[in-house]
Every structure is written in structure tokens, then in C-alpha cells.
Request: fold
Amino acid sequence: MKRFKDARDVFFERRLGLFIHWGLYAIPGWHEQILWRGGVKRSDYELLAHQFNPERFDPDAWLDLAQEAGMQYLCFTTKHHDGFCMWNTRQTAYNVMNTPYGRDVLKELAEACRRRSFPLSLYYSCPDWHHPHYPNQGRHHEMFGPRPGDEPDLDKYYEFVKEQVRELCTNYGPIYQFFWDVNVAEHEDPEINELIRSLQPGILINDRGPGPGDYSTPERHVPPGGAFRKPTEACQSLGRESWGYKQDEDYYSDKFLMQSIDKILAMGGNYLLNAGPKPDGSIAEENAKTLRRIGAWYHKVKEAFQDTVPASDMVHKDEILMDETQGKIERDQVLLTRRGNTVYVHLWRDPESSAVILRPLDILPASVTLLNNGLPLEAKVEMIPWYWREKPYLRIRGIPVNEVQDEVMVLKLEFDGSCCE
Reply:
């Protein structure tokens, strides 16, 4: 994968981050796009600002949880599609200072991040369902038309955006990334990203904004592959239905999220996992437990992602063999990463047996260890019945598939000589 060859290369070191979707939408607790998906009137929704008073908001508690989960940065939603601003902006009265809470949430978060040297990224929505100049035309992620009193004018709206960007990149210390979202109007103005870079040298900017970005940001479900071709940060939420807090959310299993993280990181991407804080500012204990479980696993296997490169091209992936009596049968599906003569085998899908065959590898490693618990495993290069017409291949045996079922297993193979020519 091509690197930036400047300060932005820190992107390849910070592999796992915490995404936070939080705003007025936490109060009804249904979805962050309740205006669009839930048929709520804008005038009724805007009254929620009179209820916003997160007395349990503690940015250090968020950062404690992020670090326990193995995360290395945090991305915060400064303004979502609803247009409500979570900082002390001078560009609109529709902001957190005009709520019962009356304090600059972003400032408190930025100060906590600065004290702990924890990188902070900022999310900013291109569409705005509140601002009178944004041309809501009923396209995806837009209101279904302007309301009385609106004056749709995209150029005027983006002048407003520029001034908000100036505030965000001037008043809150170093910003690691700027995360634009859904440029529905397809507005192109590279000068805005240039402004961001001038105010925050070395910042990373994603590919969803009004100008070219540094990295791509696929959402939710990304199919497996050998390696990403360009810098990529995949994002996923703990909840299946929403990104903001949902009172009766259907949550992904811990194992599913570990599999998703392992897959993306083994392909060379980064991973941004989202939690939606409750109206009081706290993260639901169910979410906190999941993040802690992910962290307990990640801390054990993270060496397989640090300073490694995707190496799945060393083996045949998603192989399907044909047996005359059994029909099509899927064989071992694994992903590989490598650091020098150390190869990591990621069992990102539940293994079907206690062995894995790493065809076409035929070099015997000096040792094989299960990173999850330090268990040594048996390795052989031998003829295997499935490949009786071919040659001996590397076979790893004794994988505790029945004993370790609640997390993704990662095998560490150490070779004495070169294994990867």
C-alpha cells in the first residue's frame, strides 16, 4: 500500500479507534436520523435542545474505556445531519451552549484528550437539516424539501461551513483527522480541505467531503480480501440498527465484532468502532462490557497487526474443493499478516476443525504459538489426503476449537529462514 511519506503516515500506526455519535438524538433514543427515518417534525425535534443536560458526561471515562479496549484515537461527532452543534460555535445559535447543560462539550473532550496525549478526530456532516441555506431537496440523507423561511443557497451554506471548520481547527488544539460525511449535494471546493490543512498541518482528511481525501471509509460490512489497495478506515457500530443511542438496540455479538476487526486489520485497514452515549453522557454498561471484552482479546493478539503487512497472498483464500461424493466443500478460510520471518494466521471465521492447512506453503516453521493463550501448536509439512495429487503442505494441528470459542484465534508462526520469497 502506498504511504504518504509525511506526518500522515501515523495513520498506519493507529489501527483501532473509538467513534462517538452523540447529540440531541440520544434523548428520544431511536436513531440519530430520527428526523429522516422516524417522521418527526423539525420544529418538534429542535425542542429537544431544551432537554439536553448530560450530567454524567465525563470525557475521561470515555477515554478510560477506549484505552481499555486497545483503541488509539477517538472520533467525535461535532455536527450530525440534524445540524445541532456540540461546540461553542458563533455561526449558529443551534448549539450546546443554548441548552440546560450550557457547556462546550467538545472543549471538555479536547482538553481531556490533550491531557492524556490521546489523538482526537472530528466528524462533520455535509448535509444540515436545520440550516436555512442548506438545499434540502429530498435526496438521500436530506429533509424532504425546504421549510417556510428557508433560503436554499449552497454557496452561502458552504461559507457557513468554512467558518465552522475554521473554529473547529483553531479552538480545540491538535486534530488528528477530519471526518466528513455524505456529500449529498456533490459540492466540490478543494479550498475547504486546504483551509483545514493550513490550520492543522499533518491532519488526515477522509474521502466524503468537498475535496479529495487521504483515505476511504467503508461502513458496516466489508467483504474479505487479500489487502486494501489504498489507506482505509472501516467503521462499524456496536448496534446493528443505529449509531446514536437506541433504547432497545439489537447489539452485535462480541465475537462478530472481533471477527470484523480482525478481518479489516489483517487486510491492512484501520477500524473505527462506534458507541452512542446515553442522554446523560454515559456509555451504556452493555456497550462498555463489549468494549472491555474486545480489549481483552485485542491486547493479546495486537502484535499480529503492529508493523505487519497483509500477506494473505501466501495462501489460497476462500478455497472450494470438489469431492465426488460430498459436492462443494469450503476449506480453511484464513487471512495472513507478516513481519519479516514471522507470519500470523488469522482464523477470522470460526475454524471447522482443529487443524489448518496453509497451502501452498511447504516450509516448516521453528515454532507455532496461539497468541490468545500462548499454547504451542504442532506443525508438519506432509502429504494430505485432500491434496494427494499435489505435494506436501504445511499443516498446523491441535488448534483448541472447542476450548476457545468466544474470540478470534491468531496463530504466530516463526521461521528460522526466509519463508516469504
